[in-house]
Amino acid sequence: MFKSKNGSTGISTSFDSLIGEKSIFDGNLTCEGAIRIDGIVKGDIKATEDVVIGEKAEIYGNVTANNVQVSGTVQGNIYAKYTVRLCSSSRLNGDIEAASLISEEGAFFTGKCNMIEPSDT
User: What is the domain range of residue 30?
Assistant: First the structure.
């Protein structure tokens, strides 16, 4: 399990999987637990817990998780059971479906947002 250096509200600070900064993953990715991505992923990402997208990361596909924190670039839709956090360095070109959206000043978002009721299923 990997530990994050800084905590954040509601987003996991320990990770079961890590895609490093110099890694390129081509294909759909399914993760049991939380994952941090600092490299490039070309495909959809599904995690049973949280997804943290680092500042230098590039995602070309949809992201599905409990909570999603974006500091890098996402070209695709984000589906979160609970919270999506767009950090100041984030660039999202896609739609958001989540129970809660946090957007820091400087975050770039093109798309539409659909707020949902959080579910326990």
Answer: 20-115
Decide if 56 contacts 74 (C-beta within 8 A).
no
- The CA-atom distances, in angstroms, between 43 and each of 27, 28, 83, 99 are 5, 5, 21, 24
Q: Is 84 within the bounds of a domain?
A: yes
pLDDT in tens, 4-15: 434 444 666 688
Helices (H) and strands (E) in the chain, counts: 0, 20
Whole-model pTM: value is 0.88
Tell me the mean pLDDT in the region 54-70: 97
Least Cα distance to 81 among 97, 93, 103 occurs for 97
